[in-house]
Design goal:
This protein is of the alpha/beta class. Helices cover about 35% and strands about 25% of the residues. The chain has 11 helices and 14 strands. A hairpin with a 2-residue loop joins strand 2 and strand 3. Helix 4 packs parallel to helix 6 and helix 7 runs parallel beside helix 8.
Length: about 270
């Protein structure tokens, strides 16, 4: 398969308008939502929810297996392929990816973008090798960020369980140098809080790199999505809670923009 050909769609999509991306978390084959990367709450069957987002016309869908790397599991190619069959919109996948064979298998399962985090932190050269295989447009590096005891933003790996001590801006710049096509800047501190993105973090990274930045972690209302683009300089806003929870009781109701409202984003 000529993975580089897939980049034609992505390069065109990136210049049209900012993207709004449901970010769905997988754990033991089920969809969950976390708060600060902990306290996972079951939200539904992944096939059903991916199908709904596809029907509602999501720009893209990101699927992140939050347990694969932590427990040393490889990507579940069978499940990924089934999920890919349920959507007509571009799909990204991350979780458990440690080898080029994993990258190849995930792409062959129908995924357009591979999201890597832990392996990028442990072996930055892997980003270059993956981009050489699949093309930069297919490689997204997730930079997961939380403050340390001194209040400094630092990069974490292994689903937020291991702090690297690295500055997120430097990590994003390194990923770009090695050939990453996009940066997913994921705030652990804001994850699931629905209080808004860490716009300072998003803006610092967006200003420091020349590739698209996807903001993730903290969106609780549509104004937050707009702020990620307007104030943070992100090319896309990814979110989970806002698309699966509704009301103060956080009832599970899958939702997305209607066509008319979506067309006005981020106005």
């Amino acid at each position: 398969m000529d993975y580089a050909c897939c980049g034609i769609f992505w390069r065109c999509a990136l210049v049209l308008r900012p993207r709004v991306i449901p970010c769905l978390l997988l754990a033991n084959g089920r969809l969950v939502k976390t708060v600060r990367f902990r306290d996972a709450t079951y939200v539904g069957d992944p096939i059903n929810i991916v199908n709904i987002f596809s029907t509602l016309g999501a720009d893209e869908i990101l699927l992140l297996d939050i347990e694969a790397t932590r427990y040393g599991r490889e990507p579940d190619i069978g499940q990924i392929a089934k999920l890919g069959e349920e959507t007509m919109v571009p799909l990204g996948y991350g979780g458990g990816i440690r080898t080029l064979d994993h990258v190849r298998a995930v792409l062959n399962a129908g995924v357009e973008k591979v999201v890597i985090s832990t392996i990028a932190g442990e072996d930055p050269g892997f980003v270059e090798r993956a981009a050489g295989l699949a093309g930069s447009q297919a490689i997204v590096v997730s930079v997961d960020v939380a403050r340390d005891d001194d209040g400094r933003r630092r990069v974490w790996i292994r689903n937020g369980t291991c702090m690297t001590g690295r500055d997120p801006v430097a990590a994003a710049q390194e990923a770009e140098r090695h050939g990453a096509g996009e940066i997913l800047i994921y705030s652990i501190d804001c994850d699931g809080t629905m209080t808004g993105y860490d716009l300072t973090l998003v803006a610092e990274v967006a200003e420091a790199v020349g590739i698209p930045v996807i903001a993730c972690g903290g969106a609780g209302k549509r104004d937050h999505l707009r702020a990620a683009v307007r104030e943070g300089g992100a090319s896309a806003a990814a979110a989970g809670s806002i698309f699966v929870f509704q009301g103060c009781n956080r009832s599970v109701v899958v939702n997305y923009f209607g066509p008319a409202e979506h067309a006005r984003f981020p106005a």
